[in-house]
Amino acid sequence: MQIDINLDKNSYKVYIDELSKLKFKGKVAIITNSKVGGLYLNDILSIVEADEKYVITIADGEEYKNLATIEDILEQLFVSRLDRSSTIIALGGGVISDMSGFTASIYERGIDFIAIPTTLLAQVDASVGGKTGVNNKFGKNLIGSFYQPKAVYCESRFLKSLPKREFAAGIAEAIKMAIMFDREFFEFFESCDINNQDDLTKIIKRCVELKAMVVSQDEREKGLRAVLNYGHTFAHVIENELNYKGLLHGEAVAIGMNMANRLAVNLGLLSVKEFDRIENLLIKFDLPTKYKIKDENAFYNAFSLDKKSENSVIKFILPNGIGKNLIKSDISKERVLEVLGLFK
Amino acid sequence: MQIDINLDKNSYKVYIDELSKLKFKGKVAIITNSKVGGLYLNDILSIVEADEKYVITIADGEEYKNLATIEDILEQLFVSRLDRSSTIIALGGGVISDMSGFTASIYERGIDFIAIPTTLLAQVDASVGGKTGVNNKFGKNLIGSFYQPKAVYCESRFLKSLPKREFAAGIAEAIKMAIMFDREFFEFFESCDINNQDDLTKIIKRCVELKAMVVSQDEREKGLRAVLNYGHTFAHVIENELNYKGLLHGEAVAIGMNMANRLAVNLGLLSVKEFDRIENLLIKFDLPTKYKIKDENAFYNAFSLDKKSENSVIKFILPNGIGKNLIKSDISKERVLEVLGLFK
């Protein structure tokens, strides 16, 4: 199965369950982490044909998604003398693909990279769209670039080894796409059996299609693409408060969506019944929806460090009913604090 | 005077001696070094209108053109809470514009930047074309991106404070353009008076035009643009051997061109008379043409770390007579060593 990601330049394809042989003219560096490497490196190394193959492993975890790790990777690439005809392969979850893509974008001013996402989250979200980057102490993904892969290979077989929590975290981003863009897809989630292979493939495919639609309309996040940040405005503050520990990104997004939904109810954009339907669906997939805000003023002030807050205007991405979206930048601070107060 | 830099996307203008008012909607950060700042910051700050203005100074010199400095700049930008509607202004020479452009390209995945080059080298070369980056221990400009400014302002008045050596280093890159692309321009150099304001403006204008022609045909250095590296293949090795100390970049390029010319003579592409004419022109502008190579084998091996050497093929950019160029990638190691031996 193939899905075209159509961009002004640098269009590429996402292949679902079609990975067999990968041939390259120059050198290849596979970037992965120790865990994923142990599971899948022999598989990938056996199907990659290249002049020279290198493997670079980095520590597993969001807390290593920083410039220091990028420098480590660059060092290994320079020692291996990769050049502009070389290719980087990202083998892993969103952290690996975000960092590999960023490295590829700045190594000798840009070399090719392809992504082989091994988590559901990365398959449905992180590896489509060309966002790359790392975190720093000011927040998530604040340093990075827009850089498109040459191809993405989503293999559902790689998801079988995923821990239950990580799998659910991926589902959170998939549900996000449904709430924002596709009511029918949302209803499919309510009735589907996630352990059924066909249902799972259908979810991956629909998410990639929806993301492709968004990204091809707005590659550089000037408008529509911001809608994909639904739940993230809140999630980033939560993750930052927790120092990126304890919650998986998708879990933070699930809570963030629930917070955004409360705001949407407060504004009359979402009925209480719809709010409950969404919360019940998140709970069906064992996703968290609660978070204890200690200080809602501090929480509110943290919004303004988010990239999406231009000129200190905080944009909230909200469901306008299930399957439709709305970006609002004129919500009073008092109203937001009132909603945040519900999470104390 | 305005020159259009026409690219697929992100076209922009280079203005020569047209800087008056600069108005911005969001925040502005001016990146400069302490020396240039002392000379021109009051001038620039008085003509920039913005919501908030910040000044970031970095240490002066090629040895600070590294990722550590980029991190320092990023830190100051985040503390000042620049966002995607903000603009970075590069005020300084090539080091400042390369680092400012790179920072702009990775800050929140890319914000606007404009360049105000204050050296002749930066005016005729570094600030046109979108190459950004930093050095590391493996070589020059090995980490970076292609990222276009929104505008470039070349002010000839800023050149009056330039030390004589720095001025000459800029002339070296200008002569490079003439040798590669424009015999008439080369002859203009032989007869011109560099202290004459009109002659100087003419040189800046012609260099920007030639570079615009090259870059608009080949933004990402897939072909023609590599010609701009004439002299640089050798210069980068020299600069690396000297740990970027002692010689200015343009001075190293002057020596590098002389080395490339010797190779061109050896191959029958350049007559001895033309070789002498070029060397005499470099000497007229007080540029060095000699360098003592200690070990020509080590010098040769250092070529292969250069970005331009894909798949270990070393490409030499040579004059094919004055005003024309040729890229050769099939020159035997023995022949190159023979020429390098002339510089012992």
What does this structure look like?
Two copies of one chain form a homodimer. In chain A, strands 1-2-11-8-7-4-6 form a seven-stranded mixed β-sheet, sandwiched between helices. The first copy, chain A, has two domains: 2-159, Rossmann fold (3-Layer(aba) Sandwich); 164-341, Dehydroquinate synthase-like - alpha domain (Dehydroquinate synthase-like, alpha domain, Up-down Bundle). In chain A, helix 4 packs parallel to helix 5 (164-181). In chain A, 46% of the residues are buried. The first copy, chain A, has helices spanning 34-47, 67-79, 94-106, 120-126, 164-181, 183-191, 197-217, 232-241, 249-266, 272-284, 296-303, 333-341; strands spanning 2-5, 12-16, 22-23, 27-33, 48-49, 52-58, 87-92, 112-117, 131-136, 139-146, 151-154, 316-319, 325-328. In chain A, 44% of the residues lie in helices and 19% in strands. By secondary structure, chain A is α/β, with parallel strands linked by helices. Chain A contains twelve helices and 13 strands. In chain A, helix 3 (94-106) links the parallel strand 7 (87-92) and strand 8 (112-117). Chains A and B meet through helix 2, helix 3, strand 9 and strand 10 of A and helix 2, helix 3, strand 9 and strand 10 of B. Chains A, B: Its EC number is 4.2.3.4.
Tell me briefly what this model is.
The structure is a homodimer of 344-residue chains. The first copy, chain A, has 344 residues and is α/β, with parallel strands linked by helices.
